[in-house]
């Protein structure tokens, strides 16, 4: 029986996207070596999203994460978006 882990990916902004992409490669290599699997679901919760729709994450964002085994979070922050806006909802 292969264990499957549901992981929510929240790359966020800037370097967070690059860091998560490389981290996923490492985690996939470990999964292959040790016979388990990841099921990834990416969320676009970022300052870029804030500029597009006026919110970092939807009102039910925390509820959307309940069924995941883990949350893999990158980084948030962007000039023009105050830290209390970019970080507050993501402090879960």
List keywords for this structure.
Rossmann fold, three-stranded parallel sheet
Characterize the structure shown.
With 92 residues, this protein is an alpha/beta fold. The protein has a single domain, classed as 3-Layer(aba) Sandwich (Rossmann fold), CATH 3.40.50. The protein is built from 4 helices and 3 strands, in the order E-H-E-H-H-E-H. Strands 2-1-3 form a 3-stranded parallel beta sheet, covered by helices on one side. The model has no long low-confidence stretch (mean pLDDT 89). GO terms for molecular function: metal ion binding; oxidoreductase activity. Its cofactor is Mn(2+); Mg(2+). Residues 7-80 form the Isopropylmalate dehydrogenase-like domain. Keywords: Manganese, Metal-binding, NAD, Oxidoreductase.
Topology:
Blueprint: E1 3-12, H1 15-34, E2 36-42, H2 47-53, H3 61-64, E3 70-75, H4 83-88
Parallel strand pairs: 1-2, 1-3
